[in-house]
Structure formats: structure tokens, C-alpha cells
Amino acid sequence: MITGCSSKTDSGSAEQKTTSVGAVSSPSAAAAARPDSPWSAFARLMEGNKRWVDGSLQHPHRDPGRRQFVAEEQKPYGVILSCIDSRVPPELLFDTGIGDLFVMRTGGQVVAPIVTGSVEYGPMTSGTPLIVVLGHTRCGAVKAAYKATRSTP
Questions:
Q1: Dihedral, 145, 147, 151, 152 alpha carbons, nearest 10
Q2: What are the percentages of helix, strand and coil residues in the chain, rounded to 5?
Q3: 136, 87 in Cβ contact below 8 A?
Q4: Under CATH, what is the fold of the domain 33-151?
Q5: Which position has the higher pLDDT, 129 or 26?
Q6: pLDDT confidence of 22, banded at 50, 70, 90?
Q7: Which of these, 101, 111, 117, lies nearest to 135 by C-alpha position?
Q8: pLDDT number for residue 71
Q9: In the chain, what is the straight-line distance between the N-terminal and C-terminal CA atoms, in Å?
Q10: What does the mean pLDDT of the chain come to?
């Protein structure tokens, strides 16, 4: 599930928006402007995921300059609700760095009131334009939940 959170008006097609964001070419603090719409934030994530799949990671925003840049304030461009599975770390899957994402991880992406509040934090406090619920295959938490429901009388 992907949810846009921006109050900005998006114009143009999804294809135009997706191709308008350039890949991050430098790990420096201000290497690329923060995406300000759900479409541009999603495009940035997909570019990072392509680098992950291709094995051409850039590891952006992980240097000491970036740490200093975000020390006073953070403005992540995405909220990711992901599984706790060790095989799907969002920061690596999307080739992002410090201050780029708010990440919540629960078994099987289970959402309870405390998790909902954490997901809402980014859009409400930092204007984060995108929320992604990141599922994956062969999820042990989903398998265990399914097994538990099948074995109860």
C-alpha cells in the first residue's frame, strides 16, 4: 500500500513525475533536494530500489556532513511501515541514508494504535509526503499468524 500525504496539488501524469527526479549522485548533506510530493518521493524510492537490485548502491546521506546537517532538524521524505524480517531493511532496499526515512518495523506489518501514531508523526510534524506499507514474500509473521488461526478450534 502506498499513500500520498501531501497537501500540494500534483499536476501532470505519474510517468512525468516519476521521471522528473534525478538519482542521488553524491552522499553529501545537500546532494539532492527533498522530494515534496508523493510522486517524487516514490520515484526517489524506486530509483534507490533499482540501485539495490542492480548492485550499484550509492549509499547517499551517510557521511559526517549529513549527520551534522540533520542533527538540528529532520525532514524525511518517506514513512515506511515494514516487517521486522531481517531480510528487508528499508534503508538498504531503497538505498537511502540518515534523515531520509521514518521507518517503523513490526511483525507482518501489524498496525496497532501506537504504530498508527508513529506513522502519522512524519506527515504531521515534518510534512513527509509519502507513506509506504512494505510487504514481502515468505513472511514468517504472516505464516505464523495463518498457522495459529488454522489450529484454533
A1: 10
A2: 40, 15, 45
A3: yes
A4: Beta-carbonic Anhydrase; Chain A (3.40.1050)
A5: 129
A6: very low
A7: 111
A8: 94
A9: 32
A10: 82
